[in-house]
Specification:
Layout lengths: L1 H22 L2 E7 L17 H9 L1 E3 L2 E2 L4 H10 L28 H7 L4 E7 L18 E5 L10 E2 L2 E2 L2 E2 L2 E2 L6 H14 L7 E6 L11 H8 L13 H30 L5 E7 L21 H4 E2 L1 E4 L8 E3 L3 E2 L3 H9 L15 H4 L10 E2 L4 E3 L3 E4 L14 E4 L15 H15 L29
Parallel strand pairs: 1-10, 1-11, 2-14, 3-15, 4-5, 4-10
Antiparallel strand pairs: 2-13, 3-12, 5-8, 6-7, 8-9, 11-13, 16-17, 17-18, 18-19
Helix pairs in contact: 5-7, 6-7
């Protein structure tokens, strides 16, 4: 009888643990690459993004979601909840010929979720946080599964970067054939279909689209070549028309893949308890549109750092609305900590804040100042940009103070509008600019000449 009762007790305990695990939401973070504010239908674009439009309408549109102006810094801040300037990843990305990566002492989002019972944590897509040592690889940064590429700007069809294959499954080279956007979408669907209903998971799906090189499937290009908004004569495209059609095709292909991922979540029966967050890593380059905002990728104008973004979670959020809370990439980790009720303190002090109270409708807004890097800081009402910090902002010759209420598109320097606030923000931004970095950051091209990548981008350095 004692053995029987003990068995019943163990069964009940296991059932209780399973129920507890089921209450934790799955986390799906979808990141676009160089997608502009004006490149999605829900912001008025002519590019077809029906799936993103549908999801944005269902969830909460994050109208003032900020990123860094370039890729690697945004990814570093997303993973850590800390300003990327602390890691020496501030002004540029990690290029193929660079040997550093995300500081090994930083706890990542995947590390945190692993401690909270998320047994399966997939990184699918573009990593771009270090490739020269195995210590920088996703599988050593808290993820349990990796499928994709380590560098940016790979060939969409061959998956090569600098003459070597950069396509991997966990530690090994992967020879899957196909258009990279489709492969990543299909792998994400496969991962979702493999998950158990009683175990929460993390899926970080980081597309390389629509980042250059401009490459799309011919059938997708043909759709836009036949669209008079993109081409006058579909049979005789100008170079500019071809580029615009190709870019639009890349965005639509990504949107189609996101639709497949969402459908897989629906079919899994777990959609209602899944947090889905979408945003772009920075503003557009080349053919993309940041309109109506000023600026582009590499710049701290809103066009370079204000991303199209939305979040859905039926079980936990008051959805179908637009919020103008100033938030961004470094807030993702602390917000998830808040949602999950994580009790342990983070290993290092976080720069981001939890915006969960705003998302669930308990507060209208949270006052905060958000450092955007390179002499720039923003809050709900103002932005300050200091000159000389970012070579891509040469047009800024003096302290540039923006009052969003009077000038939402950053056309005028309102430095006399609120001298006290301007002085306060300048003091803050100078403190942030002086943050000592873990490594010295070199210019992008330094070390490029004569560089030869390892065979199939596989390294043996620990």
């Amino acid at each position: 009888m004692k053995i029987f009762l003990k068995s019943i007790g163990m069964t009940l305990a296991c059932a209780s643990l399973a129920a507890t695990a089921q209450t934790k939401p799955n986390v799906v973070i979808i990141l676009a690459d160089d997608l502009g504010w004006g490149d999605v239908g829900f912001h008025g674009s002519d590019i077809a993004t029906p799936n993103l439009d549908r999801l944005a309408a269902k969830g909460i549109q994050l109208d003032r979601f900020y990123t860094a102006p370039v890729s690697s810094p945004t990814r570093a801040g997303l993973m850590t909840g800390r300003y990327p300037s602390r890691f020496g990843i501030r002004k540029t990305v990690i290029p193929p010929w660079r040997e550093y990566g995300l500081d090994e002492t930083e706890e990542t989002l995947a590390d945190m979720l692993g401690k909270e019972g998320y047994a399966n944590r997939a990184m699918i897509g573009k990593w771009h946080l270090g490739h020269a040592r195995r210590a920088y690889y996703p599988l050593n940064r808290g993820f349990t599964y990796f499928y994709g590429h380590l560098n940016g700007a790979i060939d969409y069809f061959t998956h090569f970067r600098d003459g070597e294959l950069d396509w991997h499954k966990n530690w090994e080279s992967c020879y899957d054939e196909g258009y990279s956007t489709d492969l990543l979408s299909d792998e994400a669907v496969k991962f979702i279909n493999q998950q158990r209903a009683d175990s929460p998971y993390l899926l970080y799906l980081a597309y390389n689209a629509p980042h250059g090189p401009l490459m799309a499937k011919p059938e997708d290009i043909a759709v836009y070549a036949a669209n008079p908004k993109f081409a006058k004569d579909g049979n005789n495209l100008t170079k500019a028309e071809l580029r615009n059609c190709t870019y639009a095709a890349m965005v639509t292909c990504m949107d189609r893949g996101i639709g497949k991922v969402y459908e897989a979540l629906e079919q899994s029966g777990q959609l209602d308890n899944t947090i889905v967050l979408f945003f772009s890593d920075n503003g557009p380059a080349g053919e993309g549109s940041a309109l109506p905002h000023r600026g582009r990728k590499f710049q701290e104008w809103d066009g370079g750092v204000r991303a199209p973004a939305f979040i859905l979670w039926k079980n936990g959020l008051k959805e179908q609305r637009i919020v103008d809370q100033v938030t961004g990439y470094i807030d993702v980790l602390p917000t998830l900590r808040d949602i999950l009720g994580v009790k342990s303190s983070p290993q290092k002090e976080l720069d981001g804040i939890s915006v969960y109270p705003v998302l669930k409708g308990e507060r209208d807004s949270i006052e905060r100042d958000l450092y955007l890097g390179c002499g720039t800081i923003v809050n709900q009402d103002y932005k300050l940009i200091l000159p000389g910090q970012n070579p891509q902002m040469k047009m800024v010759k003096e302290d540039f103070f923006i009052s969003y209420k009077d000038d939402p598109y950053e056309n005028e320097n309102s430095k006399d509008a609120n001298p006290q606030e301007m002085a306060r923000l300048k003091k803050l931004v100078l403190e942030y600019d002086a943050i000592p970095a873990a490594v010295d950051e070199s210019n992008y091209d330094e070390g490029r000449e004569g560089f030869k990548p390892p065979h199939e981008w596989k390294v043996i350095k620990p």
